[in-house]
Amino acid sequence: MQTAHPRGLYLLFATEMWERFSYYGNRALLALFMLSALSFDKQFTAALYGQYTGLVFLTPLIGGYIADRFWGNRRSILVGGALMAAGQYSLFASGSFYTQLEIAIPLFYLGLGLIILGNGLFKPNISTMVGQLYSAQDKRKDAAYTIFYMGINLGSFFAPLICGTLGDTGNPADFRWGFFAAGTGMLMSLIVFVLFQRKYLIDPQGNQIGMAPEKRTKAQTQRRNAELTRVDYDRMLVIGVISFFVIFFWAAFEQAGVSLTFFANESLDRTIFGWTVPTSWFQSLNPVFVLIFAPIMAQFWVGLAKKDREPASPTKMAYGLLLLSAGFLVIALGVKQVAPGVKLSMMWLVAMYWLHSMGELCLSPIGLSMVNKLAPAKFASLLMGVWFLATAAANWFAGILAGFYPEAGKPMPNFLGWEIASLNDFFMLFVVMSFAAGAILLLTTGFLQKRMHGVN
């Protein structure tokens, strides 16, 4: 049995690492840039952030269809990457003109639009190509997606540190340098992919993967043109149901870029020996925890599998939601025990991000691998787009929920009868939402596992 992974996996690892450096470098600065440089208020910033990140994950549905039917994965990745690089440099230009809002704001919206379009072409196709490196029944796929996921988190760890150090200085004029670094990261992603794609992106038979329809081999075309069976429909139903529950995970998790950024900026004691930790740096906590614990979690699942006790994928994902709920419970308890006007210790936020990261490891790489294993070949990229469609809905929902962040001197927000009078009330909203979704998913795992027809 093969244990080493194909070299193409490490090419996709590097390509995705640099792209995620670009995206998360942007994300670390976006809300702060809107507040400080463009003079948007918190409610508008939260809403726009949710709309932007929602559209970033909505367009992969279209990008997956374009790849499956017309361009193939490779061309889609190249065009998407070029659009995203242009978008980041448009944000750099916006930051350069921040004192002239009539110029800065249109450039800002142009940059967001280009990133949205580019991500739609890039995101589902690089994730799909990981699975194409292996045969359909290859047991290395889960491990491959865990390695790939580490690339995502390596990029997202360094992004807030580098882009945040350059852009989050307290001087609005410096935001542009953070965006410039993000654009340069995207160019690095494209260069790596262009240089090595032909040599390393091949399937076990030695055929080039990710090609346009007219360039696919006969065997690849036959797999994609096969008629759908009842088993295929059952498995697609599972993808749809799981995607629904994923909405609640990411809607809470993505508070990292908005309400938790507001919280870290205003209500957290960020001083260490007289030095103030930049707000954007806290977004590196999640990826560093993922990098540390991903190999441990992978070995943990392998150990359970050897004892025939490994949980099914939906069960693991339910655990992810419950861990997310526990993380918000920690920060809710933290803000409740401090006196009004007193800033909270950073350690509470660190503990919350650790629990969120463990929850992410139970849900996100498992979900990517599951979609690849369950999706019929003819709809592989499209159904990966459906997975990201759930993330799109979650990010839009995250922006709405972040708009309920309580502010002194303003009327108390109310969410479905839940009056949010304090930060404790706000964070408890996510405790309840995540716990309820996790508990319901746990109860439905038997129904879902039956319809996966042997796929775990």
**Radius of gyration, CA atoms, in whole angstroms:** 22 Å
Shape: globular
With strands numbered from the N-terminus, the spatial order across the biggest sheet is 1-4
Mind telling me which CATH architecture this is? Answer: Up-down Bundle
Largest sheet: 2 strands, parallel
Strand content: under 5%
Distance between the termini: 19 Å
What's the number of extended β-strand segments? 6
Chain-averaged pLDDT = 88
Helix content: over 70%
Output the helix-strand order: HHHHHHHHHEEEHHEHHEEHH
CATH topology heading = Growth Hormone, Chain: A
Tally of alpha and pi helices = 15
The CATH superfamily name is: MFS general substrate transporter like domains
How many domains make up the 3D coordinates? 1
General description of the model:
By secondary structure, this protein is mainly α. The chain has one domain (7-194, 228-451): Growth Hormone, Chain: A. Helix content is 73%, strand content 3%. The protein contains 15 helices and six strands. The protein has helices spanning 7-36, 42-58, 60-96, 101-132, 141-167, 175-200, 218-225, 230-253, 259-266, 285-306, 313-336, 346-374, 380-402, 423-443, 445-451, and strands at residues 268-269, 271-272, 275-276, 344-345, 414-415, 418-419. The strands form three sheets. It has a two-stranded parallel sheet with strand order 1-4. Helix 3 (60-96) packs across helix 13 and helix 8 (230-253) packs antiparallel against helix 12 (346-374). It starts with 6 loop residues before the first helix and ends in a 5-residue tail after the last helix. The mean pLDDT is 88. It is found in: Cell membrane; Membrane. It is a multi-pass membrane protein.
